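Antibiotic biosynthesis monooxygenase
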Amino acid sequence: MPKIAKAAPVQTVITTFEMTPGTCQDLLEALTEAYADFISKQPGFVAAGLHVNDAQTRIANYSQWQRREDFLAMLRTPEMRERNRRINEMCKSFEPVMYEVAETFDGN
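Structure:
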């Protein structure tokens, strides 16, 4: 499970996928399979979560990596390049962006 903390020694990547409601479940299944079978087993992987909006037109993916180089190395593997080609066919667009946690808040 991702842990969000301002001083966490991880690289945060948030990827948004835009699709139609008709392809949302297919894309969610492809992303779930990619994480279960490949991404979560890559060096430097820490945790991830997938979020679907109510209209099923967007999926947001929050992932954490030990280092940005670990995330980039995973993207460059032949397997992930092939998976990303198939994922791209199911959505209008997707964009991974690296972030640093600027601040956190909780309800306690």
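Strands lie at 11-18, 45-52, 58-65, 93-99.
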